[in-house]
Design goal:
Blueprint: E1 11-12, H1 15-20, H2 22-28, E2 30-31, E3 37-42, E4 48-53, E5 76-80, E6 87-88, E7 95-100, E8 106-111, E9 120-125, E10 132-143, E11 149-154, E12 163-168, E13 181-186, E14 191-196, E15 202-209, E16 212-219, E17 226-229, E18 235-240, E19 246-252, E20 257-263, E21 269-274
Antiparallel strand pairs: 1-2, 3-4, 4-5, 5-6, 7-8, 8-9, 9-10, 10-11, 11-12, 12-13, 14-15, 15-16, 16-17, 18-19, 19-20, 20-21
């Protein structure tokens, strides 16, 4: 997003161009046509973008009042990369963190639309129809290769054994709460933003270790849980490459916020993109955004 108070921009960059040079990276960079959208998720074919729309400023005294027109809808939606053919996928502004199923048919997301402020997992067709309530408390869901199983951050039904859990994406009956919770993968509560590999049963995620966020990876059955990348800087918001060989992530080196990529085995770490002016800012904690930080965002890597 931009340091300009009037914009909350989503940028689309070419990985190959950015690895060539910063000049080539900037030359091919595109700013998504919709203003005030965030939490981007590319479709499997790379043709559409799902996002969270924030709508117009909610009051005349908002610091965002008087800015350029924003995307008018305050909910989840998806559109082509040129901003056309918009489809609304819900009507609740609390819906967040969308993720496309590999078969391109559904979007899974978390939402705090209930009055208890608890995040829960739901899925909906990309056309905005057939919403399903997983009856699972959790957040940051990510589809598995089968477009049915998913990983998310959550706990058991008693609020214990928190960490990364596996779920099945179907709409259970109201008295079967927890029936489609398939069990824990990582039992450690300081984790976030899991992303299931598009090519194998492997999950990358961010883990808080001694007050610093690092990148970790684990097999979907919970085995081989290991550190992928650990530095003195925070690393997070991991996203697999389409071929499953690289992971993109956000980092801060003490001066600049950057996007970087690291190989699946952690042996090759490369700079991809430095935010304009080294800045990565989030909107002020007022309407329509509320209190946000970098960890509330997400990045996506598509074809």
């Amino acid at each position: 997003n931009s340091p300009d108070r009037c914009t909350y921009e989503t940028n689309i960059i070419s990985v190959s161009d950015c690895l060539q040079s910063s000049a080539q990276c900037q030359a091919s960079r595109r700013i998504y046509p919709f203003n005030n959208v965030s939490e981007a998720a590319l479709s499997p074919d790379g043709e559409r973008l799902a996002f969270r729309g924030w709508g117009e400023a909610r009051s005349a005294d908002s610091p965002y009042a008087g800015c350029a027109p924003a995307h008018p809808y305050r909910n989840l939606g998806n559109a082509t990369l040129d901003g056309t053919n918009f489809v609304s996928t819900g009507s609740f502004w609390e819906d967040s963190h969308p993720d496309w199923s590999p078969d391109g048919g559904r979007i899974i997301f978390d939402t705090k639309r209930a009055n208890d402020s608890t995040a829960r997992i739901r899925a909906i067709g990309v056309d905005g129809n057939n919403e399903e309530n997983m009856l699972i408390a959790g957040e940051h869901p990510s589809w598995a290769m089968d477009s049915y199983t998913f990983v998310y951050r959550g706990c058991d039904l008693t609020g214990n054994r928190c960490g990364l859990w596996k779920g099945a994406a179907y709409d259970p009956l109201s008295w079967n709460r927890g029936q489609n919770m398939l069990g824990p993968i990582v039992e450690y509560d300081k984790v976030a933003h899991p992303d299931w590999s598009p090519t194998r049963d492997e999950i990358v995620y961010q883990r808080l270790v001694e007050d610093n966020w690092d990148l970790w990876a684990v097999n979907a059955d919970g085995s081989n849980d290991h550190s992928l990348l650990s530095t003195a800087n925070p690393e997070g918001l991991p996203s697999w490459s389409p071929d499953g060989n690289w992971v993109a992530y956000l980092s801060h080196d003490g001066q600049n916020w950057t996007l970087r990529i690291v190989s699946r085995d952690g042996s090759d770490d490369r700079l991809l993109y430095t935010y304009d002016g080294g800045l990565y800012t989030v909107p002020q904690p007022v309407e329509p955004y509320g209190q946000r930080d970098w960890i509330d965002e997400q990045i996506s890597w598509g074809k």
